[in-house]
Write a structure and sequence with these properties.
With about 725 residues, this protein is of the alpha/beta class. It has 30 helices and 21 strands. The protein has 3 domains: about 280 residues, 2-enoyl-CoA Hydratase, Chain A, domain 1 (Alpha-Beta Complex); about 180 residues, NAD(P)-binding Rossmann-like Domain (Rossmann fold, 3-Layer(aba) Sandwich); about 200 residues, N-(1-d-carboxylethyl)-l-norvaline Dehydrogenase, domain 2 (Orthogonal Bundle), CATH 1.10.1040. An 8-stranded mixed sheet has the order 14-13-12-15-16-17-18-19, with helices on both faces. The chain is globular and about 85 Å long. The two termini are about 35 Å apart.
């Protein structure tokens, strides 16, 4: 029974000040749910009604202030409330906003003593207090990150913040989810004062006893928006320009920033009470739509579960790696060495000779040097990190390593040679991971005498920045090796997905399907500019022709040849192969030599006009809507095939991998959220339509036809049991 949980304690001191301490029993963080709201409302009633209470301080009994809404519960509730009538939903989505409004109009002054991080609803609670005192400690960050999960700050955030600091100043916090350190928060006017943590409550009390006010500025008669409301000539251009920029950056795929802009515009023309109702209406719209649902599910729920060890074999004690052997000091090796050293791991960075190994370390030197220059890191911290990276060509230094990652050339023979050398020196229990992009782990494991300790750890470029690691389990990989590898990924503070072994695993075959299909479009006579623009409008971060130039056409051709040699029986050349070959033969190797699908010059890049001579554009071009669908569907169909073949262990791995690893648009929540959002039967019908239009490779696999026939989904109550 939620009603009985005492989330907020109310203690009244002899001075008549009530201390409201938020301390959710049994949880490590304060989150906002029904029990929180009921408990806070109970305290507000008491503060309002008890004549002995002069005012209140709201603080937290945990390290952080309040983390925000309980998104886990919210995600689960969506199924239950799907058929609720609109007035019921409106009541529900407005409930927190009403509690906060009750707080600020209770007639007694209330101070937020923000002792640690206050995010989302937590910061909105603080905004509803008459004064905000923030602990002056780096951990006390404040912000409204809702937009990053497709939501909006719907408990007054879109209304109180602009009334406090002005519409334009509020925009980055609301529309980009920017957060602020204590220093920034004070400067921007988000809080009234900073206090040393030990003095926080005393400062709040002092204000209550000396100069209190129980009325918010926006409830004062004659209140005016700082800097003017949306119709003010100083502010109106921000909406015009802002709207254009928003359309350009989101391609109209993200409803939340648009809704926030509407809250700002419409809300600023209304008194607060009415403005809060407008905000609730927009919150309800975005929260019930598929975009926020997919984003919450993948970027919050699934990400959290993956990081907590969803696929980690049970019963094995966690182990931290102390010494990493990083073999291959190229682009990937340099980045992995840097991130490991940053997390306190000693790194032996090996390449073919000392000079090559030192070039790998230079990557870390440059990256950290920039941080020091920008004042983000102290010089001695940089030196300590760099001291942990030892460049060498000597394998003997690996005799006490507990983890090795190999990132030498993508060549089976080179990798086999390195593996044999490692076998000769590594201790028995050291895990040997390969960073191959596509070669099957089981195949590479043939080179070692201990295949049980062999595993794939697929990092993404740049390895020190990209958040995902795809962990690939070979046929012989042991549970202990998988657990150890996952511990290592956690130590690097990256998000793991775990997949079964197959050529291209999950992420490489997934992005490969998109790039291959798109280059194939060139040969179909589709205008290259249309291909690039439609991909970007569908939400891909970079057009497929530009990506191929970046990776290099030469590399793509060689990778195809090596696949053909390695898998003479199963290799099927993709649709892109003839196009890539022609460019390769013309010496157009890609971005690195300034010539590929694009010509690269001082002022940027333009599509190479000669492409039209090689592949004349057809007179009738496809409808852009169909091309955008094709971009999203060709990848979702490939993901469904990977699921059908058992490469993926769960839809969550596919969704996380696609967004965090290879840039599938976040607004979809990933291919499986996308398929569920469309509805499996509707997805099957549309994939068949695209198959009729563009080719058999767009047809849905049998798995999806079966799911459609049985009313199954990837998530929720009707989820198919995939493993
Ligand atoms: P790279 O060419 O930048 O670096 C490879 C390094 O390995 C070079 O420094 C080379 O001197 C070294 N090397 C070659 N043979 C060696 C040997 N016998 N002993 C020791 N060192 C040797 O390549 P990269 O882009 O860093 O890729 C490395 C691996 O990571 C490949 O398997 C690749 O498929 C994979 N990968 C690359 C990316 C990417 O985006 N570049 C992403 C994921 C995975």
């Amino acid at each position: 029974m939620n009603m009985k949980i005492e989330v907020v304690r109310c203690e009244v001191g002899a001075d008549g000040i009530a201390l409201l301490t938020i301390d959710y029993p049994g949880k490590s963080m304060n989150v906002i749910d029904q029990a929180f709201m009921d408990s806070l409302q109970g305290c507000i009633d008491r503060v309002r009604d008890d004549p002995a209470i002069k005012g209140a301080v709201v603080t937290s009994g945990k390290e952080a202030f309040v983390a925000g809404a309980d998104l886990m519960a919210m995600e689960q509730n969506l199924d239950r409330t799907a058929d609720d009538p609109l007035p019921v939903l409106f009541e529900k989505y407005g409930s927190l906003s009403r509690v906060f409004r009750n707080l600020e109009t209770c007639g007694k002054p209330v101070v937020a003593a923000i002792n640690g991080t206050a995010m989302g609803g937590g910061f909105e609670l603080a905004l509803a207090c008459h004064r905000r005192v923030l602990a002056d400690t780096p951990a006390a960050v404040v912000g409204l990150p809702e937009v990053k999960l497709g939501l909006l700050p719907g408990a007054g955030g879109t209304q109180r913040l602009p009334r406090l600091i002005g519409i334009q100043a509020a925009m980055p916090y609301l529309m980009e989810g920017r957060h602020a350190s204590p220093e920034q928060a004070l400067k921007a006017g988000l809080v009234h004062e900073l206090a040393p943590p030990a003095e926080l409550i005393a400062r709040a009390r002092r204000w209550l006893l000396e100069t209190p006010t129980a009325v918010q500025p926006w409830d004062e008669k004659g209140f005016r928006f700082p800097g003017g409301n949306a119709l003010d000539p100083r502010v109106a251009p921000a909406f015009v320009v802002g709207n254009t920029m928003l359309q350009a950056s989101t391609q109209q795929n993200l409803p939340a920033p648009q809704a926030i802009q509407s809250c700002l515009y419409e809300g600023s023309l209304l008194p607060l009470e009415k403005a809060l109702r407008v905000e609730t209406k927009y919150l309800m719209t975005v929260a019930c739509g598929p975009v926020s649902r997919g984003m919450i599910r993948t970027l919050f729920v699934s990400k959290g579960k993956a990081e907590k060890g969803l696929h980690r074999p049970a019963g094995l004690p966690p182990l931290q790696s102390r010494k990493l052997g990083m073999i291959g000091a190229g682009m990937m090796g340099g980045g992995i060495a840097l991130v490991a050293a940053q997390r306190g791991v000693e790194v032996v960075l090996i390449d073919r000779d000392q000079a090559a190994a030192e070039r790998g370390k230079a990557y870390a030197e440059k990256a950290l040097g920039k941080q020091v220059e920008r004042g983000r890191m102290a010089a001695d911290e940089r030196d300590a990190i760099l001291a942990r990276i030892r460049p060498t060509a000597d394998y003997e230094l690996l005799r006490d390593a507990d983890m090795v990652v190999e990132a030498v050339f993508e060549d089976r023979a080179v990798k086999a040679e390195v593996t044999r050398r490692l076998d000769a020196v590594l201790p028995e229990d050291c895990v040997l991971a390969t960073n191959t992009s596509a070669l099957p782990i089981t195949l590479l494991a043939q080179a070692t005498t201990r295949p049980g300790r062999f595993i794939g750890l697929h990092f993404f470029s740049p390895a020190d920045k990209m958040p995902l690691v795809e962990v690939i389990r070979g046929k012989a990989t042991s549970d202990a090796t998988l657990a150890r590898a996952l511990d290592f990924v956690g130590q690097l503070k990256k998000t793991p997905i775990v997949v079964n072994d197959a050529r291209g695993f999950f992420t490489s075959r997934f992005i490969g399907a998109f790039v291959d299909d798109s280059i194939g479009m060139v040969a179909e006579g589709i205008n290259p500019a249309l291909i690039e623009n439609c991909a970007r409008q569908a939400g891909m971060p970079v057009g497929p022709l530009a990506i191929t130039d970046e990776l290099s056409i030469e590399l793509a051709v060689h990778a195809g040849e090596s696949q053909a040699q390695t898998f003479p029986d199963s290799y099927r050349p993709g649709r892109s192969v003839p196009v890539l070959r022609r460019l390769f033969e013309l010496g157009r190797m890609g971005r690195k030599i300034g010539k590929g699908f694009y010509d690269y010059g001082e002022s940027g890049k333009t599509l190479w006009p000669g492409l039209a001579d090689l592949y004349p554009p057809a007179t009738v071009q496809p409808d852009p809507h169909d091309l955008k669908q094709r971009v999203l569907y060709v990848q979702a169909v490939e993901a469904a095939r990977a699921m059908e073949e058992g490469v993926l262990l769960s839809p969550a791995d596919g969704d996380l991998g696609s967004i965090l690893g290879v840039g599938y648009p976040a607004y979809t929540g990933g291919p499986f959220c996308f398929i569920d959002g469309v509805g499996v039967p509707a997805f099957v019908a549309e994939a068949d339509r695209l198959g009729d239009l563009f080719g058999e490779h767009l047809r849905p696999p049998q798995l999806l036809r079966d799911m459609a026939a049985h009313g199954e989904t990837f998530y929720g109550a009707t989820a198919r049991r995939v493993m």
